[in-house]
Write a structure and sequence with these properties.
heterodimer; A: mainly alpha; B: alpha+beta; six-stranded antiparallel beta barrel; 3 helices; about 25% helix; globular
């Protein structure tokens, strides 16, 4: 009985936490707080939970949730609508297609895997923006944002790992 | 980390939702391109809703940043004090010269029956949000429609112009900075009076995109708003011309990354005067319009005598911005009749001209 209630609580929490952290990542990344005085773009924090749980628990990070997190990022960042929503969806499709490759990575390889996903997301956004405005925006700031986001993923992944073990856990079918 | 210590989740069943959200994303992009007002309203509503939280976050962050910034200044405070004293003395001389020239210009305008200068009023607002992203440079101010803010208004700080309002909610407004990829404003380069378009490209110094033919500009020339198009007031200081890579860029006077308070410029162009009907004009009914209703005559008092330099003038034309009325004084002969639309005065505004 105790085990059943624990699983139930974990299920409810597991259904909420990944998407909640994605939304939280959007909010935090768009707060008027700048550690480097606005010289460095804020990291794309929302992509971390999207990447993490798309790999380990894709049932808790469905495409609709990824799309919603992207729309919220568009809404709060001030840019044209749909840019980050489409980029997140492309990133999700990439991870979904190459999940075996990404999930087999560990240590530095896991960070490089996230860097690849972040690069794909940024490249998609860059392509959409280029078509949207019909000119090429400067690439340097995007590279800086990729680097900052990947650096933040190192502590971020440790945090997500802890949250996953503590609140989410593996799927019932995986025991 | 996601290193495969967990068993992989079930993959199946995601293809159809993925295709659906991909289509939705494309539709959202196209919809935003064709009809951005829907998304803008949603964005303004979200920002209005989050404004109290953003304001409460801003205060401790601002305090922390100023505290950290002041640590380094402790060691240079004496040199800064001397420098500021010298600069203050120099600026006082310039202020006196500017006041004398301003009063002289106003006297000349009155003598020449010149078109009155546009009225400017300012609304102070606090910066409660910034977005320094690879594709956009924006900031959020805590003033919106309820404070009279409208899209298109210029935003300045003590240094110069920093951007313009592109979206106004009820209590907040979004500002597109001059450095943003989408920013394009008409400017004039002094002293050549060369008209140009200044375009942002998400770098610190916007480019001079389109320059009037034959214009010769050089590094060090001053850039101000030209007022072309009537959206922005003319003469707002913007920056200085610098050369880079064979082209011209503008080193902005203002630094939006450090701006904490900004002023929103309310620019009111003078209302166009309706020409009076003369006997030679064709009746309006020829154009299928209803005949004009005769307006009650308005008798305007004769203008005060022009001020003579060095002597106090009756009415003191040089003392106030209101000395140059909105009504065209060319018809101000004794007994002349003029029908003019009501002019908005400064008393009608809540704002106070600086």
């Amino acid at each position: 009985m105790v085990e059943r209630s624990g699983v139930l609580a974990g299920g409810v929490m597991g259904a909420v936490v990944p998407v909640f952290l994605g939304v939280l990542g959007v909010l935090v990344a768009n707060l008027p707080v700048s550690v480097f005085g606005g010289l460095v773009p804020s990291p794309l924090l929302a992509l971390m939970p999207v990447y993490f749980w798309t790999l380990v628990r894709p049932d808790l990070m469905p495409p609709v949730a990824v799309f919603g997190i992207g729309v919220l990022e568009d809404l709060l960042s001030g840019g044209p609508p749909g840019i980050w929503a489409a980029s997140f969806v492309v990133c999700y499709a990439l991870i979904d297609r190459e999940r075996d490759t990404f999930a087999g990575l560990s240590g530095v390889g896991a960070v490089l895997g996230f860097a690849a996903a972040m690069s794909a997301t940024a490249a998609t956004a860059y392509a959409i923006v280029s078509v949207y405005y019909w000119r090429f925006p400067p690439f340097a700031l995007l590279l800086v944002e990729i680097a900052v986001t990947v650096l933040w993923y190192i502590p971020g992944a440790a945090f997500l790992n802890w949250v996953h073990r503590r609140f989410v856990g593996a799927a019932r079918s995986e025991f | 980390m996601a290193n495969g210590i967990w068993k992989l989740g079930r993959r199946g069943g995601t293809q159809l939702p993925l295709v659906i959200v991909a289509v939705l994303a494309v539709v959202l992009i196209l919809l935003g391109k064709a009809q951005s007002s829907i998304f803008d309203r949603a964005r303004a509503s979200v920002t209005d809703w989050m404004a109290p939280a953003l304001q409460s976050i801003r205060q401790p962050v601002q305090g922390m940043q100023s505290w950290v910034g002041s640590i380094g200044e402790v060691f240079t405070v004496y040199q800064q004090n001397l420098k500021l004293k010298q600069e203050n003395a120099r600026l006082r001389q310039w202020q006196n010269a500017a006041l004398v020239l301003e009063s002289r210009v106003k006297r000349y305008q009155l003598l020449l029956n010149a078109v009155p200068d546009p009225k400017l009023s300012y609304r102070l607002a606090h910066v409660i949000g910034r977005a320094s992203k690879p594709f956009l440079e924006t900031m959020i101010l805590d003033a919106g429609k309820s404070q009279g803010v409208k899209p298109g208004q210029a935003v300045v700080d003590p240094g110069g112009m920093i951007g313009r309002v592109f979206l106004a909610g009820d209590r907040t407004s979004w500002v597109i900075l001059l450095t943003d990829l989408n920013s394009r404003i008409p400017v004039m380069i002094e002293p050549e009076h060369a008209h140009a378009i200044m375009a942002g490209d998400n770098t610190l110094a916007p480019t001079i995109d389109t320059l009037s033919q034959g214009a010769q500009i050089k590094a060090g020339d001053q850039v101000v708003t030209s007022g072309d198009g009537g959206l922005l007031p003319p003469g707002l200081p913007v920056g200085t011309i610098v050369t880079q890579g064979g082209g011209f860029r503008v080193a902005l006077l203002a630094d939006p990354s450090t701006t904490e308070d900004a002023e929103i410029v309310d620019y009111q162009t003078a209302l166009e005067q309706v020409p009076s009907v003369t006997p030679g004009d064709m009746p309006a009914s020829v154009a299928g319009m209803p005949p004009a209703v005769p307006q009650p005559p308005v008798t305007i008092a004769p203008p005060p005598p022009a001020a003579i330099p060095g002597m106090p003038a009756a009415g003191n034309a040089s003392a106030s911005h209101q000395a140059v009325p909105g009504a065209a004084p060319r018809a101000n002969q004794p007994g002349a009749q003029q029908t003019s639309p009501p002019q908005k005065t400064d008393d009608d505004n809540e704002d106070h001209p600086e």
